Amino acid sequence: MTGLVSVTFRELSPKAILALAKQAGLEALEWGGDIHVPAGEIETARQVGEETRAAGLAVLSYGSYYRLCAQDPPEKTFMPVLETAQALGAPNIRIWAGGKTPEEADAAYRQAAARELELVCGLAGKAGLTVSLEYHRGTLTQTAPSALALIEAAASPNLSLYWQPNPDISYAQNLEELRAVKGRLSHLHVFHWRNPENTRYPLAEGAQEWRGYIEEAGKDHGYLMEFVRDSKTEQFLEDARVLQGWLN
C-alpha cells in the first residue's frame, strides 16, 4: 500500500493534502499529530478521518509525537493520543522511542522505556489499536539491536516497528538493519536524503537503494512518502509515480 505522511506538507490543509494524495494515486494517509490532527482535538480528528474515507483513502496510522520517558504519568498523557486516534479511525499509533541513543541510554533508562511502552501498548490494545515505534536517529530505535531489545522487553503482541533509512550510514548498513528488523515491521517511511547536510533529493535518484529495500522488506507493508525535495508538490507527484513503479 502506498501512502503519504501528512507532515510532508505541514503548510497545507487536510483538504489540500487529500486532494494531492488522490491526484498522486496513493491509497492511504498517516495523519500527523503536530499540525493536522493535534492530540486531544477530537472533533478535528473525527472530521479529518471522515474526509479521508470519503475521498476513498484509508487512515493507515496516527503519527503521534508521544515520546517514551518524556511524559509523566503515561496513563494520563497517552490517553488524549489514544482518543484522538480512535476518533480519527486510525488502526495504529506511531510513537517515539525516548530521547536517547542506544549509547547514551543506561539500563535504568531502557527498563523505564520498556515498562512505559508495555503500558502504552496495553492501553492501545484494549481499544483494539496497534502501536508502532518510529525508527529514528537519537532514540532507542537508532539501531536494529537496540530496537529489537526494546520490543522484546515490552513483550506486547500489538507492538511493531516502522523503518526508514538512516542517512548517517551506508546503503549496505541500512540494508542489514532492515534485514534484522523486518520480522517486526509494520510500515516504512520513504524518502531519499544524503548526509552530511540532510539534503533531500528526488526519489528516483535513490532507485538502487529503494529497490533493494523493497525487495528485502516485501510489498505487504505501507510505503508512506515522507519529505520531498524543496517540499514541492510537483516533486511529490513525480516521487509518487516512481514509488508506484517500483512496487508494481
How do the strands and helices of this protein lay out in sequence?
Elements: E1 2-5, H1 14-24, E2 28-32, H2 42-54, E3 58-67, H3 74-88, E4 92-96, H4 107-126, E5 130-133, H5 144-154, E6 159-163, H6 171-181, E7 185-190, E8 193-194, E9 199-200, H7 207-217, E10 222-225, H8 233-247
Brief digest:
The protein contains 8 helices and 10 strands. The chain is α/β, with parallel strands linked by helices and about 250 residues long. α5 links the parallel β5 (about 130-135) and β6 (about 160-165).
Protein described:
- The protein is α/β, with parallel strands linked by helices and 248 residues long.
- It has an eight-stranded parallel beta barrel, surrounded by five helices. A two-stranded antiparallel sheet has the order 8-9.
- It has helices spanning 14-24, 42-54, 74-88, 107-126, 144-154, 171-181, 207-217, 233-247; strands at 2-5, 28-32, 58-67, 92-96, 130-133, 159-163, 185-190, 193-194, 199-200, 222-225.
- The relative contact order is 0.14.
- The radius of gyration is 17 Å and the shape is globular.
- It starts with a strand and ends with a helix.
- Helix 4 (107-126) links the parallel strand 4 and strand 5 (130-133).
- Helix 2 packs parallel to helix 3.
- The protein contains eight helices and ten strands.
